[in-house]
Amino acid sequence: MNIIVTGGAGFIGSNFIFHMLEAHPDYRIICLDKLTYAGNLSTLKSVMDKPNFRFVKLDICDRAGVYKLFEEEKPDIVVNFAAESHVDRSIEDPSVFLQTNIIGTSVLMDACRKYGIKRYHQVSTDEVYGDLPLDRPDLFFTEETPIHTSSPYSSSKAGADLLVMAYHRTFGLPATISRCSNNYGPYHFPEKLIPLMIANCLNDKPLPVYGEGLNVRDWLYVEDHCKAIDLVIHKGRVGEIYNIGGHNEMKNIDIVKLICKELGKPESLITHVKDRLGHDMRYAIDPTKIHNELGWLPETKFADGIKKTIKWYLDNRGWWEEIISGEYQNYYKKMYADRGSSDI
Ligand code: NAD
Ligand code: DAU
Predict the structure, then answer these.
(1) Residue 7 belongs to a domain with what CATH number?
(2) Is 14 contained in some domain?
(3) Nearest by Cα to 39 from 83, 2, 80, 69
(4) Domains in the chain: how many in total?
(5) Among this protein's residues, is 223 annotated catalytic?
(6) Is residue 129 part of a domain?
(7) pTM given for the model
(8) Is 307 among the domain residues?
(9) Is 110 known to be catalytic?
(10) Whether residue 255 has its Cβ less than 6 Å from ligand 1
């Protein structure tokens, strides 16, 4: 089996590559990544020399480049992780989100139609469903929940999902979509809540919590997400959407306090800053379908996953310190100065 994994130098894509090389040592994995600010070749260091792994620096919007790669590799499966993934950046500048997340997806699917494919898998997000109210803990996102997006990011992901379903219906593209809740774990880029708070804590810097920090996210250890996608591409039904989540809802403020506790840092580092525009209140996935159809269940409990994650950031300081010492400094000042906390 030849599998093209796009966005494999990012957080979830790299963890998926590690999982696939381990779980299917007879497969050939080709990682296609543009290496944007979020892509790190150093993340893939441990697999770079494997004979059944190839890295190609390429933009998924580059039609000629993508077609050439398909001609060379004749992939059986394409798993599309490549995306602009940060909500706050999409609020600053939506354009690149539309380009990569929508146009890029269409280029990949056109290549699949031209060269043939056994499966195209779109890695989507629970954010396409919008948010749920805090006072209705009985409500969850199912695959039937209508798309109702809040940010330019989630709208671009929803646009891509609609295109995938259209390519399936109109052209018979053998496609599947998975919509997962918030991931955490190794190689998570430190612009996102958990790694940002770990890095700031370790540097004794303020911990910028948006608003009161009462927003709820449904956290899943990244390895569990990767295992779910492995199941969907092999056993999932073509034309279907699968929600992935582990019933692990937590308020942002509680996550930040937990990180302080684990690292022995004072909660006085917590700084409440200006809220995110259009901030979604609560995400909560109903994973019944993937459980009943494919037997998937999350394996890592949050209490263990967060300890493993913090240990990873302690053991791999070089990885994230290099990131936050570069262009990230400008990003941080720009994003957090307005919010009243630019000290990093
Ligand atoms: P990430 O930002 O860490 O990584 C994205 C990767 O895509 C990077 O390596 C980047 O270089 C690459 N990329 C960006 N634009 C590209 C382009 N035009 N061509 C080729 N490569 C490009 O993102 P992530 O958190 O790993 O998310 C991966 C996917 O999973 C995204 O599609 C995201 O929407 C989805 N998702 C993420 C989460 C989460 O909690 N992080 C949850 C559900 C779904
Ligand atoms: O639900 C899946 C989505 O999860 C993915 O599709 C996205 O790609 C991924 O980035 C993530 O989106 P969120 O917006 O939920 O993640 P983020 O880590 O940016 O924020 C999590 C929560 O923490 C959110 O309520 C905003 C808040 N937050 C975030 C940052 C970066 C803060 O309070 N302070 C911060 O500095």
Answers:
(1) 3.40.50.720
(2) yes
(3) 83
(4) 1
(5) no
(6) yes
(7) 0.98
(8) no
(9) no
(10) no
The 10s digit of each residue's pLDDT in 185-208 is 999 999 999 999 999 999 999 999
Q: What is the pLDDT of residues 49-58, one digit of tens each?
A: 999 999 999 9
Ligand 2 pocket residue status of 6, Cβ below 6 Å: no
What size, in residues, is the chain?
Answer: 344
User: 202-216: per-residue pLDDT in tens?
Assistant: 999 999 999 999 999
Nearest bound ligand to the CA of residue 156:
1
Q: Is the CB of 252 under 6 A from ligand 2?
A: yes
Range of the structural domain that residue 141 is part of: 2-184+219-244
Tokens 């995306």 sit on residue: 83
Q: Tell me: the pLDDT tens digits for 58-115?
A: 999 999 999 999 999 999 999 999 999 999 999 999 999 999 999 999 999 999 999 9
In DSSP terms, 28 is beta-bridged to: 2
Q: What is the DSSP letter of 327?
A: T
Please give the distance, rounded to the nearest whole angstrom, from the Cα atom of residue 144 to the centre of ligand 2: 24
Neighbours of 244 (CB within 10 A): 29
State the Cα–Cα distance between residues 276 and 211, nearest whole angstrom: 8
**Ligand 1 atom closest to 187 (CA):** 3
Q: For residue 290, is it within any domain? A: no
Question: pLDDT at residue 338 above 90?
Answer: no
Out of 59, 84, 127, 218, which one is annotated catalytic?
127
The two beta strands, 241-244 and 175-180, are parallel
User: Whose CA is closest to 243, among 228, 224, 226, 223?
Assistant: 228
